[in-house]
Amino acid sequence: MTPMLYIWIAVIIVALIIEGMTAGLTCIWFVPAAAVAIVLELFKLPQAIQIVAFLVISLLLLICFRKISKKSSHVATNVTDMIIGGTATVTERIDPANETGEVKIDGKRWSARLEDGGTAEEGERLTVIKISGVKLICKKSD
Predict the structure, then answer these.
(1) Of 138 and 141, more confident
(2) Is the pLDDT of residue 72 over 90?
(3) With CB atoms 3.0 to 4.6 Å apart as the test, which of 6, 46, 58, 106 could cross-link to 33 if both were Cys?
(4) By C-alpha distance, which of 27, 25, 26, 5 is closest to 15?
(5) According to CATH, what is the number of the domain 79-140?
(6) Phi and psi dihedrals of 123, rounded to 5?
(7) How far apart are CA 5 and CA 47, in angstroms?
(8) DSSP-assigned states of every residue in 89-121
(9) Which residue in 113, 120, 115, 116 sits closest to 99, CA to CA?
């Protein structure tokens, strides 16, 4: 195998690893472009042609698919986006004096405190206003 073949395979692997570690479409454009470059390398086309083809295909895919992905509605990509503003149900009395309190939101239990330092009883519904460390900071729902 030629060195360029190894380079194109490495580009695919690195792009897939980065894509797997991120929530958005950040490097996926390089995978099909590198695959085309591999085919060009197998046909023994010059490296300059491979590189130009890689850059052109990457750029075209980036332009085309970024427009499509930006048109789609906002999708929560992290815990903060999914929870802030949501309604949580108190599952364990929130009592700052005893440092207790737990809520359930989206099927998951979280430690919780009220923003005003007050108490809340089991079954009460609260609105999540922020996350502080591993605790949800909530306010009583209106």
Answers:
(1) 138
(2) no
(3) 58
(4) 27
(5) 2.40.50.140
(6) 90, -20
(7) 10
(8) EEEEEEETTTTEEEEEETTEEEEEEETTS--B-
(9) 113
Residue 108 has pLDDT above 80, yes or no: yes
Q: How does pLDDT run across 124-136, given as a tens digit for each residue?
A: 999 999 999 889 9
pLDDT at 52 over 50: yes
Alpha-carbon span 22 to 67, nearest angstrom: 19
If you compute the radius of gyration of the chain from its CA atoms, what whole number of angstroms results? Answer: 25
Residue bearing tokens 């930006």 = 70
Place of tokens 């949800």: 136
Mean per-residue pLDDT over the chain, rounded: 89
Distance CA(40)–CA(45), nearest Å, equals 6
The two tokens of residue 31 are 């995978």
